[in-house]
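It would be a great kindness if you could assist me with a short task in structural biology. The matter concerns a single protein, recorded as an amino acid sequence and a row of backbone structure tokens. Could you please explain, in whatever detail you think fit, how the structure tokens follow from the sequence? Thank you for your consideration; the sequence and its tokens are set out here:
___
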Amino acid sequence: MDSIADRFRLRLLPALLLAGGIVVLSSGLVSYTTATEPGPTALALTPYEPLPTIDPSLTLPGAESGAAPSPTFPPDRVTTRIVIPRLGIDLPVIAQPPSAGDFPLCGVAEYYQALGQPESGRATYLYAHAARGMFLPLLYASRVNNGKGLLGMTVEVYTSDDMLFLYKVVEVRRHQTSIQPAFDDHVGLLWLQTCEGPTLDTPKVFVIGQLASVAPARPNAAHPAAHAWQCGGA
């Protein structure tokens, strides 16, 4: 029987690496990373709230060796919304629902369940397609002077327990082919990921933020409705 780590690598990790403006030739999914192309065909799903828990079994070997969570960290805290005001990004954040399969959804960002949440002592890893209305502005900004314009930018992250975490972008990494650095993060940085191009093995962009402040959030600001849809299938 495959181990949990093997199933994770074979099933969830490839799905994560699909996040971005990619194409899957066998399914006919086309790239939509350029602003002049039409958006993906919307296949409506029933709206749902961000999932309330994280599956503790979804870990990689060595991932449990990180810093201990803060004593005040709520074990059921999950990210519910990401806002980058200067880029016009404002997305609900969810976990991939089992009913949607493995291919990342459109209309939302998603948090990586095998990693952490704000103040957990591990990386908070959020990913979304490089498409209009999602993380396309991150891709465009990363191409200008290697993303230096993103440095110092504020990223707002809301959580299910009505908290607002403000991060400052401290690093932009282009042409990345592995997410292992996020598993090696035992500081608790924010990792934003999107795709650079239109193939399965296309490299990724990482935009990394450091926590600057924490404050209570208005409940209605922390709980946006998530109207996600499948991006043409996979």
